[in-house]
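Sat 14:20. Reprocessing the chain from the morning session after the first attempt stalled halfway. Input below, unchanged.
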Amino acid sequence: MTQPENQHSAPKAARTQASLGRVHFIGIGGVGMSAVARIMVARGVPVSGSDAKDLPVMADLAAAGARICVGYDAANLRDAQTVVAGSAIRQDNPELAAARAAGLPVLHRSEALAATMAEDTVVTVAGTHGKSTTTSMITVLLQGAGLDPSFAIGANVPALGVNAASGSTPVFVAEADESDGSFLNYRPQIAVVTNVEPDHLDYYGTAEAVYESFDRFTELLPAGGVLVACADDDGARALARRTLERGNTRVVLYGTAGDAQLTLHDGGPGDVSITTPAGRFALDLHVPGRHNALNAAAAFAVALELGVDPEAAAAALAHFSGASRRFEFKGQGRGVRVYDDYAHHPTEVRAALSAARSVAGGHKVHVLFQPHLFSRTREFAREFATALNAADTALVLDIYPAREDPIPGVSSQLIAAHLGAGGRLVGADQEAVAAVLAAAGPGDVVLTVGAGDVTAYGPVIVEALNASAPVESVPDA
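Finished this time. Tokens:
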């Protein structure tokens, strides 16, 4: 990984967009990098970038005005004045080495984004779970209510068409990632925290370090800022209490708890409303689950803080149809509905299965789960099993390693050892798909779950449900 200039050791004044000059992105094809580049190009910043492969988003950026190169070469820097390096870029990358040798500032993606939105009213969404969905909901709501915010989201959103854009109003909505501490680079006026739980311990080391990082995040709020926190989550509630004790900013709680300023009433699909000081408003949500109702309440709270009429805010939420890989419908066959979800923490898996259960009604729920990271599997194996046991059938694939090397003694068997009668390990490709097909019947729901390439199974399962030919393999995600 690169070692960007900012190691998140202490807050410092954010750069401005004008101070960046000509910006070169190393790894511009990545979802997060391309998002920042897209906004910079739209705002008139001279942008260039390179990546190892010619990815579709690079053609879009080139058409918008960026200078794009395929393959890494020191010559690609040309007259760049600032360099943004993707997290997957190696230290010996020729462009990164040339930038350092030339003394150019090398920024983390979050630092570049912070500079881009330095002059805006910034709304950041942080939390162990639900960031992408909540950021998407806020953006869709504001657009539907007549505002046109800039936004940067860690997932594609069908209702928006893209995951980042420069809007016409001085409001910027951004997902703030805590996984590597980079959310400390932002300077929000409104900070949403959906929940706080131990995760990313490969980076933080201890749960206490996670909580401390969120404290530092809320300390970034100005005196006139506001923390919007979920009253239903113990970690977010504790963070709100500590923030109030510091006295540096206002706190607004949302949720079903009695002391929430915005009280959520969740009677299930078609019966969700929220009570505010201005009255009670029905929310027309098209995404299932209590977690999504809470995300909608957070979006509603932000809209009120930005002066949106509550009636308009409630109506605008009806435009939200979900974010990519967040309980995303992939298709159906033989009466079986197939969904895909990015859940990779036990709390997220529980929420996804709860949503699946509400959609399934009296029918069964079957989950194909792929653990993500050896370290996370080691820390939460029993909790994963407990969450998966909420399904009628829980099939567990081998661990998706992502950035990690194997850890001796850590495998999916750690989870399987605690599964109930409906759970077991399953092999990849044809074996996994055949196991799903053998379990699922008309009316049932199948859910593929995990942050790795398990997402590729959804379309294959749908195809298999609608065909008699055996599945030989699952394509790479």
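The first helix runs from residue 31 to 42.
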